[in-house]
Amino acid sequence: MVQFHEHIITDLLEDSSGGLVILSAGLALHKLIGSLLHLHHPSQGSLLILSASTSQKQSIIQSYESTLVASQPDESSVLPSPSEITSDLPAHQRLSLYSSGGVFFITARILIVDLLTHRLPTTSVAGIILLNAHALAETSTEAFIVRILRSSNRALFVRAFSDRPHAMVSGFAKAERTLKCLFLRKLHLWPRFQVYVSQDLERDPPEVVDIRVPMSPYMIGIQKAVIEVMDACLKEMRKTNKVDVEDLTVENGLFKSFDEIIRRQLDPIWHTLGKKTKQLVSDLKTLRKLLDYLVRYDAVTYLKYLDSLRASESFRSVWIFAESSYKIFDYAKKRVYRFGRSDAGKSVGQSKTTATKKRKLDDTSKEKEDLSGSTGSTVALEEVLEGPPKWKVLRDVLEEIQEEREKHSFSQEAQSGLDQGYQSGTVLVACKDEHTCMQLEDCIIKGPQKVMREEWEKYLLSKVELHALPKCNKKKPKALKGFGILDGVIPTVSGKKAEVSSISKQENEALLLAASEISKHITKDIVVEDTKETCEGSGRRKKGRGKGRNKNALEIGKNDNEAARSSEFDKHSSGNKEGKNGSGLEDDGGFLESIEKAVLRKHNPDLDAELLQNTNKLPPLHFYALDSDLHILDILQPSVIILYHPDIAFVREIEIYRAENPLRKVKVYFLFYEESTEVQKFEASIRRENAAFESLIRQKSLMMIPIDQDMQRLGPDSASEPQSVISQNLMTRKAGGRKEAEKASQVIVDMREFMSSLPNVLHQKGMRIIPVTLEVGDYILSPLICVERKSIQDLFGSFASGRLYHQAEMMSRYYRIPVLLIEFSQDKSFSFQSSSDIGDDVTPNNIISKLSLLAIHFPRLRIVWSRSLHATAEIFASLKANQDEPDEAKAIRVGVPSEEGIVENDVRAENYNTSAVEFLRRLPGVTDSNYRAIMEECRSLADLALLPVEKLAELMGGHKAAKTLRDFLDAKYPTLV
After folding, report:
1. Which of 526, 644, 664, 895 is buried deepest, with most CB atoms within 10 A?
2. Distance of CA 421 to CAs 203, 355, 763, 781, Å?
3. Which domain of life, per UniProt (predicted)?
4. How many CB atoms lie within 10 A of CB 321?
5. Alpha-carbon separation of residue 675 from 179, 224, 295, 391, 857 (angstroms)
């Protein structure tokens, strides 16, 4: 453990109530938590850990066990490791675990239910450790838990941790509000530039080699084009005057949180925004990914992603119609292949220019005639397959490391224990994701050109798979309506023409032909291999294996099906001649005859052979994905670390690893693309973190925390709670103004509702929460009132699935007053949609029309609108006034049939024969508007069958409906006699 961790633990132990710790990313938070758990003794009580992710649980357990073995090797087998309490455990077993005094990971939902049902003795809990404190709020379930525990256990400590300082400054006084909801008074800030931290990490820093890899000209062109398009989108966003202009910079646009910042600003007015503004928000996210993927993935994968964007977004996107957007697609294609005519063996010309792309479709046939008529020209599809520049640099670095080790292997210095680890240790290569790790591993083993060749074949095979799919007759696309164009100019081409012009027909046919040839070679090789295995007597088993390999080879493109939709851009015209060649491509005049003479130029395979010969000269390697969040440095103990994708958090982990192992020599290589957004993002992340800590330091000097915050009365009996409506209306003449003993107001809540924050707010208002599993409704306020709560997003989903109709029907069936509560978010506008979207006609897709139909079908259903969570609590208090308290046992039995099949409290069954009513409503001619009139006139279905047509027409509101029903009732049953 590093020394500054001891200072943090000392500061936390000084205050018995706990504190909030915010430290820089990568400063080994899991080791800090493991050391705290090591100080816990079972005699103090149980220690509960909340809000821990799966990777954090694994890291904390691993750190705890290693600390225990290092300090007390004899007790390592006696003391148990932290375990997890899940909902699968029965209640009595959870109770025994709570009382055991151990350390447990538990979810907030399980813990709050056990607290409210009194399954957890609060005195047996010594403290709570809260992770990811930046995600907490006043209405979160974790704050609910702390309030209940603190109200009955004053000695309880709460220690909250966060390693994302920029998230703690996202809102107004976020740190102060977090302290207040957790009833804490101490804020501990530990940035990277803190004195103790900098001293520990800079005492003996690792050797660092910064390598700036120049990008290829096409990569520079793509990056410049994407930044220009992003800047154009940001300028359009500024024109809306609805967001903070200071945040709209290209530097902020490099981070994932940029999308969240814009959405948070626009959420209150999201329903009033036009389609163009909403599309701009989506386009900024897409452009950020384009910049990130440019330096992360290879050229073929990048082209696949662009093809998927071109197929999925098409004319709806704003950025595609920007001035520089065509360069992105053009340069990305040039990194993979070139297409053109070569006259008498001349090299392939450049790819199509902008003018060629915008050529009318009529010119295509002329171009085909010229192409087929020229005797000395052939169509050439030249493979470029530009590999990422970092691949070559990575291999050079690995060879340099191996040469350095071989050079010092016979020296006396290498024989010492100080340098032995460096000479024989593993080289760790840190990448962003698992895909890059596997690709780099293949690159080291097979060679870069072979890897690019395999990616290219996958790309082509995906086009064959897509081309083999049946073509659907699509309707003629409608003309564009003007949104999605940065300069406001409406394009004159239709959607189909835009798709065809994005990639030429000759080029697409050449790609498909090359793909079919590759597919033929794969099939031929497999058939030859199967024949050879059969001759050797391997039987059907090896034959089947060969067929399986063929299937896998041809199904490679299925994973990239969406990415290859750009092959559908090419639509054959109705005037094409019939007939197909062996590759399955339609013969298009004389063009296909010339396309069959196409030249597919490949790279020299001798280069790969040379690279494979040098594979044995490389040191032992291990590839690590940063997205996995696994702390592998202490396990692997590498001597050389290569940051293929530099990350600020992992850099701090390396510094911690070096500080904990001062005798081990560590060398770190940084691979940056020179003058790229990768460098800008790395440097901007450091500046953003420092600015966040500076802001937190200012907030800490100015924040106002009540001195008696940890001593104030908590819970429903708090004096700060407002008086109920009944107590406020007490008449002073009654008993001399003496207040009657009030019965605790209680609300029965469904278990599933604890995913929301409403039970927490209801508890703050002084209501007793009873968590049970309900079959009907979400909240039971009284024996008569049942409430189904819907957020806006859930309301739309319930209407789409039909679940809301069933819920309303069940509530109306079992309760006198069914209520549908529609709850809005506090930070959003209190309206469904803008006034311009509300029409006069009833349409099946309009939410207002659906609500109107719901009210017509269920006349007793009451629809209540709530502005926020706190407004909902006030509404519940008003509805409960002058009402009896709900019965928990009855609420659980509602909707659950007994062994005899009888359902209690069925309101409809008291007045009507429910089965007969359901049968009546399914008869032809009977509708929701006339079945009640029939029920009032007829006492049974037998009476209905005897009514004449004239009487039925009077009851059913029309002669046509009456005749339909009479014909159905009088219809004869067909027999075979």
Report:
1. 644
2. 20, 61, 59, 69
3. Eukaryota
4. 19
5. 42, 11, 12, 18, 65
